[in-house]
Amino acid sequence: MTPVPFLDAPLTATEARVLATLMEKARTVPDSYPLTLNSLQTGCNQKSARDPVMNLSEHDIAEALDGLRDRALVFETQGGRTTRYEHNAQRGLGVPEQAAVLLGMLMLRGPQTAGELRLNTERWYKFLDIASVEAFLEELQERPAEKGGPMVVRLPRQPGEREARWAHLLCGPVDTASLTSPAPLGTDPGALEALEARVQALEHRIRELEERLERAGA
Predict the structure, then answer these.
(1) Alpha carbon distance 166, 143 (integer Å)
(2) Nearest partner of 137 among 161, 109, 115, 159, judged by Cα
(3) What tens digit of pLDDT does each residue of 187-209 get?
(4) Domain of 69, in residue numbers
């Protein structure tokens, strides 16, 4: 596995999911944060707003926490009788708040366009417009070697897509060939956009309901 310049080694997919989940919950359910191992497992294994959907065991998550703790990306805290976990992503990665938010969302939901990132991060950080999202993405992509090199990459635009998607590099280089596939014949881009907007609205509503239930059970 090729090391990532700004980390001693690439994050595993599980480590990325654990770190991103802690980043998400710190902003969306602050009353329940830092998270217990059980709450973290529930967040990592959510069926909505996750790509890919995972089914991680407590052992998987504990192992990932060890790796993240060694990189100073996660810390343990004591909350009563239960150990809780909080992230240190922004300082650990050495990026500004806006860049950390974008990296967290890319880890959580996979490659996305700048417009999707602005919509999906709305509860984490309110970007002024898509141009500001693109500016931070470009800054992360053009990060000089002395600062560790690029942290994101703009993917080739797929047939039928109006915007290119972005992917993070925290888990190592991205196989762009595996992420590009032609649009089905006869697909109407306008219809796809409308469907995507409806799906995102529904996902947003589901996230709100899940987080209300989580707060109620905390």
Answers:
(1) 15
(2) 115
(3) 455 555 556 666 766 776 677 77
(4) 13-91
Residue 40 counted as domain residue: yes
Q: What is the number of structural domains in the chain?
A: 1
| 210 contacts: CB under 8 Å, gap ≥ 6 | 46, 48
**Alpha-carbon span 46 to 44, nearest angstrom:** 6
- Nearest alpha carbon to residue 140 among 163, 106, 180: 106
Contact 117, 29 (CB under 8 A): no
Least Cα distance to 121 among 139, 131, 133 occurs for 133
The dihedral of CA 152, 141, 113, 212: what is its sign? positive
pTM for the predicted model, two decimal places: 0.80
